[in-house]
Automatic annotation (TrEMBL):
Residues 183-281 form the HTH araC/xylS-type domain. Keywords: DNA-binding, Transcription, Transcription regulation. SMART domains: HTH_ARAC. It comes from the Bacteria. This is AraC-like DNA-binding protein. It comes from Paenibacillus eucommiae. PANTHER family: ARAC-FAMILY TRANSCRIPTIONAL REGULATOR, HTH-TYPE TRANSCRIPTIONAL REGULATOR EXSA. The keyword Cell division does not apply. The keyword DNA-binding applies. It holds the Pfam family AraC_binding. InterPro entries: AraC-bd (IPR003313), Homeodomain-like_sf (IPR009057), HTH-like (IPR037923), HTH_AraC (IPR018060), Tscrpt_reg_AraC-type_HTH (IPR020449). The lineage of its organism: Bacteria, Bacillati, Bacillota, Bacilli, Bacillales.
Length: 283
């Protein structure tokens, strides 16, 4: 699955730079694939900025002439003229988002958010990112009054989200290995949320005892593994409610709830409405 939207038409691979707009989104998109081999390489970069957010899976990226393998929950920012490489490291599930943007105010925004000094940012998985990206894509495609201002605003929200997750993560080089193990367990939730999942199963993936895993997981996400799983299932349920005509029972089963009544009870408790009331609403 892949999709994209273009605010500024692509004339060539060089992209577009703007000196008249404070911040402008040129184009954006995402892809979600089970297995793929892919490489995007630009020796001289582009005229605009590029943000890549790797939500699930591993990739090779180049920063300052050196190749790095990055995992789930990693953002990469390339500035105009910087050499760019994004390469899938092996045939595995991948979910990734990209945005090309420009404007005379970009550097000011990056500086104020504390994300101006490097290319690679370990953020952990940002569940809100997909919603903001989808909202920006919908704005570009619909082109309603003021859409260009709205997508610029959404771009600032995305950069702010990245900054907050990066600063909260507090990663150091020595912490990356254990952090990647935790990310593996979170990726497992995102891939297998429709199946029965136990906390001991997740703690084994992270290489931690159950109590330590729960503590570490909560420090990273703000939730216990059980609560995180429930909320992720509800996130997927809301997508199905909005974009499909499946019955409530079908949706509850597809997102991992074996009991429709329990699903409806949990949904109303956490979302403030019944699943039927949420159908078709803008998320």
């Amino acid at each position: 699955m892949h999709d994209s939207a273009y605010h500024i038409p692509e004339v060539d691979e060089a992209g577009t730079a703007s000196t008249t707009e404070f911040l402008q989104v040129n184009c954006l998109g995402y892809y979600k694939l089970e297995k793929a081999k892919y490489e995007r390489y630009r020796k001289k970069g582009r005229k605009d900025y590029l943000l890549i957010y790797n939500h699930i899976g591993k990739a090779i990226v180049r920063a300052e002439g050196t190749d790095h393998e990055v995992g789930s929950g990693t953002a990469v920012i390339y500035r105009p003229g910087e050499e760019q490489l994004y390469q899938l490291s092996d045939e595995q599930p991948i979910e990734s988002y990209w945005i090309h943007f420009t404007g005379y105010g970009v550097e000011e925004v990056l500086e104020r958010l504390g994300i101006a000094g490097q290319n690679i940012y370990y953020t952990g998985q940002m569940e809100e990112y997909s919603l903001l990206s989808r909202m920006a894509q919908n704005e570009i495609q619909a082109q309603r009054r003021g859409y260009d201002l709205n997508i610029a605003s959404l771009m600032i929200q995305i950069l702010t989200l990245l900054s907050r997750y990066y600063l909260q993560s507090g990663f150091t080089g020595k912490q990356l290995e254990s952090s990647n193990r935790l990310d593996l367990s979170i990726s497992y939730i995102h891939t297998n949320y429709h199946k029965p999942i136990t906390v001991p199963e997740l703690s084994d993936l992270a290489g931690l005892c159950v109590s330590r895993y729960i503590q570490t997981f909560k420090q990273r996400t703000g939730s216990t593994p059980k609560d995180y799983l429930i909320r992720f299932r509800l996130l997927k349920a809301k997508e199905l409610l909005r974009y499909t005509n499946l019955t409530i029972r079908q949706i509850s089963l597809m997102v991992g709830f074996g009991d429709q009544l329990y699903f409806s009870r949990v949904f109303k408790k956490l979302e403030g409405m019944c699943p039927s009331e949420a159908r078709g609403q803008v998320m």
